[in-house]
Amino acid sequence: MPADPLESPRTATDVQLPRDVDAALALLEAHDYVAERRLATAVFLALSLQRPLFLEGEAGVGKTEIAKVLAAGLSRPLVRLQCYEGLDTAAAVYEWNYPRQMIEIRLAEAAGSIERSELAHDIFTTRFLLRRPLLQALSPDDGVPPVLLIDELDRTDEPFEAYLLEVLSDYQVTIPELGTIRAQTPPVVVITSNRTREIHDAIKRRCLYHWVDYPDATRELAIVSRKCPAASQSLAREVVAFTQKLRTLDLFKAPGIAETLDWAEALVALDRVTLDPQTVADTLGALLKYQDDVTAITPDVAARLVREAKAETA
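Below the sequence we write its predicted structure tokens.
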């Protein structure tokens, strides 16, 4: 049987996959990702079973970061496909280099020595192929299976979801002019969704599913301490307590851990060592991204939340 046209020599990676859940948890923590055990279990199973990992959750809770951490922890390249409405195979999988093909045709016509049938065959070869993220992940140049991040799948259209079924089931794509391109070793696939719409069951059936929730106070404090070491422990505790209480309010978009970290860094930049209502009012834009939410945090509400946060951390 002939080799796949884009087949690359297999190259072993230096870093072995985690042997158990504890090793997966340690891998994440070694790269400053403070994960709960259920998430570490999902990561371990996805790696062990070579199944895509489907992560759903609110924006800013750390879904994308998991793919980045896995790429760093496993010493593999990160191939990212950022999804958007109207995404098609030309942007996601492959595209023919039409300008180069036209130049080849003009040169052949000028030489007058190649038949049309031969020319049509010659211009549809791999040297005229532009690899997009999915094809790059299935046939990497160096042979090392990367971490493929399909980010915010919920932003795409249903036809693209249908196209992904072949990729997620068999780790292959079909190019009519070349045939089927199959990965020798499957990439590590992480799919994220902010659940702005439901993803089809056919996609989810091919994946291991995990809902990434907001962290509890203990885990969020550990994250802030690792990611923003310049913040004092007292300030970090107040920031986390305030943010946790903020999430209990009826907001259009509650702040995620990304916003908590942004706020902590903003407070450090302002040389604040403790929270006060005026500082909260001045820096709400780091926590809340909608004007209606910012308006809802009146001075009285801010003062109350600051008092409660300080009482909890006293």
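Residues 217-313 form one domain.
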